[in-house]
Amino acid sequence: MAEKIQRVRGTQDLFGDDIARFDHVVETFNRVRKLYGFRRVDTPIFEPTAVFARSLGETTDVVSKEMYSFEDRGGDSLTLRPEFTAGICRAYIQNGWQQHGVLKLAAHGPLFRYERPQKGRYRQFHQLDAEVIGAAEPAADVEVIALGAQLLSELGIADKVTLQLNTLGDAETRAAWREALVAHFTAHQDALSGESLERLAKNPLRILDSKAECDRPLVAAAPGIDAHMTSAAGAFFEGVQKGLQAAGVDFVRTTSLVRGFDYYRHTAFEFVTVHLGSQGTVIGGGRYDGLIETMGGPSTPAVGWAAGIERLGMLVAVATTDEIDVAVIPDAPAAESEALAIAARLRSQGVSVATAYRGNAKRRAELAAKDDVGAILFVRDTQDADQKLNFSGRKRDGKGKDRFQRVLSALHPTYDAMGGTYE
């Protein structure tokens, strides 16, 4: 027997409840983002490697350790996208989208990072993404955060998640804070973890995000950003906080919160849960006013977030499975053609229909019951119009009667004299 082919480590096959939860998250996102006027955008799954190396920063873990990069047949270095923002910014610059003024964009799809697989973290994973490009006002930060909060609420998981909020200040604030952090951690470098020692030389703000036990006391004692805040940066953050309060979005100030990419400025935030172990962040984002300019575009303010579809799905209480309205079953081979015609008619009227490809009427009815369809419609081999069809609706989930009426309406008037019962 040939050896079975296995899927690549860190990937997943989605089916059944898993894909139902996945679809539920995406469908809810699409419904909510339309309420806020966010338009769908789609960009390539792979980009020139420079798109991510220039935007995310050479010292970030994603660029230095996690990107799936390869050389194509033309000798160009390409990378499977590890996040959405850089590709969307590349599209914004290349296509001249600044002509549209402020853009509110939404995306979803697969991303790729070479990380150690664990619960809620995969090497091919999926995210939702929301961006406001071209708006420098705190109100844009408030709206994009409020979008995330409403998504969590409509998924029914808002009570499982806490919004953590911080500011990284403007360029002047960040530079002064960085200098203070370097001085603090350098004075205690003998106690730092190996990873934090590397970050001290390359990206000291990331030490604040360390999970190493030996780093925690040093992180707790590290200088905060507020002491280095310019008046302009402080006023901006105050505007964001007041806006969130006005919008009814609760938050907790978390001074140690930083984002992993170099392009973040001002607002940084995460929606965090304690229900997924160490993979607690379900939505994370912030403001990145300097990114588009560093990629060769015009100076453009922007703010956005990304959310893990798998992680959100793991928090959803009940998977919403695909519901089938009715099963159409011929009671004899001679009724097969008419059953197919009736199924086609029902589907054209928006009624979902299950059909089986083999087996007698009893076996097909058993399969329909196993699939938990809302109703069964038997097509009989008879010339008597009054006995041509027999329909049975069931109180499966409180919607059986609605399905019963939908089927009757879809078949009217051709099969007006059908027999039917609603149990």
UniProtKB/TrEMBL annotation:
Pfam families: tRNA-synt_His. Keywords: Aminoacyl-tRNA synthetase, ATP-binding, Cytoplasm, Ligase, Nucleotide-binding, Protein biosynthesis. L-histidine binds at E83, F84, T85, R113, Q127, E131, R259, Y263, Y264. One of its GO terms (biological process) is histidyl-tRNA aminoacylation. One of its GO terms (molecular function) is ATP binding. InterPro entries: aa-tRNA-synth_II, aa-tRNA-synth_II/BPL/LPL, His-tRNA-ligase, HisRS-like_core, HisRS/HisZ. It comes from the Bacteria. Its EC number is 6.1.1.21. It catalyses: tRNA(His) + L-histidine + ATP = L-histidyl-tRNA(His) + AMP + diphosphate + H(+). Residues 1-330 form the Aminoacyl-transfer RNA synthetases class-II family profile domain. It is found in: Cytoplasm. One of its GO terms (cellular component) is cytoplasm. Belongs to the class-II aminoacyl-tRNA synthetase family. Homodimer. PANTHER family: HISTIDINE--TRNA LIGASE, MITOCHONDRIAL-RELATED, HISTIDYL-TRNA SYNTHETASE. This is Histidine--tRNA ligase. It comes from Glacieibacterium frigidum.
